[in-house]
Design goal:
- It catalyses: tRNA(Ser) + L-serine + ATP = L-seryl-tRNA(Ser) + AMP + diphosphate + H(+); tRNA(Sec) + L-serine + ATP = L-seryl-tRNA(Sec) + AMP + diphosphate + H(+).
- GO terms for molecular function: ATP binding; serine-tRNA ligase activity.
- Catalyzes the attachment of serine to tRNA(Ser). Is also able to aminoacylate tRNA(Sec) with serine, to form the misacylated tRNA L-seryl-tRNA(Sec), which will be further converted into selenocysteinyl-tRNA(Sec).
- By secondary structure, the chain is α+β, with helices and mostly antiparallel strands.
- The chain has 2 domains: about 5-105, Helix Hairpins (Orthogonal Bundle), CATH 1.10.287; about 120-420, Bira Bifunctional Protein, Domain 2 (BirA Bifunctional Protein, domain 2).
- It contains 13 helices and 18 strands.
- Strand 11 and strand 12 form a beta hairpin.
- Helix 7 (about 170-190) packs across helix 13.
- It is elongated.
- The structure holds one RNA strand.
Length: about 425
Amino acid sequence: MLDPNLIREKPEFVKEGIKNKGSDPNLVDKFLEIDKKRRELIKEIDNLRHTRKELSESIGKKLKQGENVDDIRAEVRKLGDKIDQIEKELEGVEKTYKDILLSIPNLPHPSVPVGKDETENLVLRKEGRIREFSFTPKPHWEIAEELGLIDFKRAVKISGSRFYVLTGLGAKLERALISFMIDYHVEHHGYKEVFPPFLINRDSMIGTGQLPKFAEDMYKIEGEELYLDPTAEVPVTNLHRDEILNEEDLPIKYVAYTACFRKEAGAAGKDTRGIIRVHQFNKVEMVRFTKPEDSYKNLYELLDNAEDILRALELPYQIKMMCTGDLGFTAAMKFDPEVYMGAQEKYVEISSVSNFEDFQARRANIRYKTKDGDLKFVHTLNGSGLAVGRTMAAILENYQNEDGSITIPKVLQKYMGIDKITRK
RNA sequence: GGAGAGAUGGCCGAGUAGGCUGAAGGCACUCGCCUGCUAAGCGAGUGAGGGGCCUAAAACCCCUCCGCGGGUUCGAAUCCCGCUCUCUCCGCCA
């Protein structure tokens, strides 16, 4: 949610930002119109209420003195009817006002390159060494089946397409990755570990911006106002919804593992093989609450934290900076680390690191008290560290050997208890 | 799932025969005073949201808020109805 005052005072500036994001700048005009109406009605109601209050009180006094109050009573009653009528009108206006405000995207940071879609994102840098194979490397889904790590067929039986079953050392590798990532962020980067619920209510979904606009992307529990967690960003950011934090506690840093559930509507035919695009996957997510003036410093730290995992696993990757058109609804700036898939010879998004500034904080009403006693909205940020399934896919493709075995990355060996996965 | 109790400000906690109660008291916090230091003590202050005024901020004025939503009434923290959540007991259960 944007600051309503900003829209009132700098409508052209806001329109420009919205346009660069690929949204309709007309929303600003619609907002200004309803905003004006809203304030007119509020003013009118406040005045009427004020009169009613005074008359009501005078009735009390007159009654005590034994005076007749029938006339005033009738008058106030009429006043009340009028207030009811305007209140009803205001109710409708407020709803529209809120709807528009919630559907306006966050503005891009001025330094974000303007671009229409993902084709105009910038590759900032490439890191790590891409391995040269002396044989033809196999895609991860082939290796996984050959080594008995993933069962695609049976997943279809129990759930459907875009699901997979991890088996044996595949399941263990997934668990090892989750533990390794969380431990690393806790021990080296100072995050506090959180294990939140996976079923999330509507207010929380609105707080982080998934609702009302993106309902079709999420799974909803039938007959209840509960949604399946699409990313730990939602439960973890909402940890502090409607709270006032202390300035000295900022920045607050959480790391959480959750399963993530997504409908992947509109992705038909995309990434149909393997475990790149599925309805359920595991992810370790980092979330930060910061003071406004520190949020960009925190964004770069967050990016570095995500990269640390890639470096520790010795996986080659590149960092993309998203252009305005690919920032998404909520972000002001966003970087996507992409891991290199050795067999498919392409980079695949494995993390996403964003600064939402005060956009989510306004929606979720997350504030902090400054030393001077002022209340201000915090800035919220998050970044995957990392998407677990895609990390496994990258390990399978980049660490495969000619005999069909997989070397376990050094940092995972103590979690796996072995240094290699071989064919039986 | 069944029975009962409750939901008030940052926290604790008063307040129901409806009328200056945004709300006593305490704690915490801030400022000042006092005091070898600390503790104690003394004095003052401290909710949020919205609207108006205004170039802007402060001040000031007004409205709303005692879990949420509705009703009764000239007037509701106080009365009535629905919902949500919390706690206790019972049942069930990983």
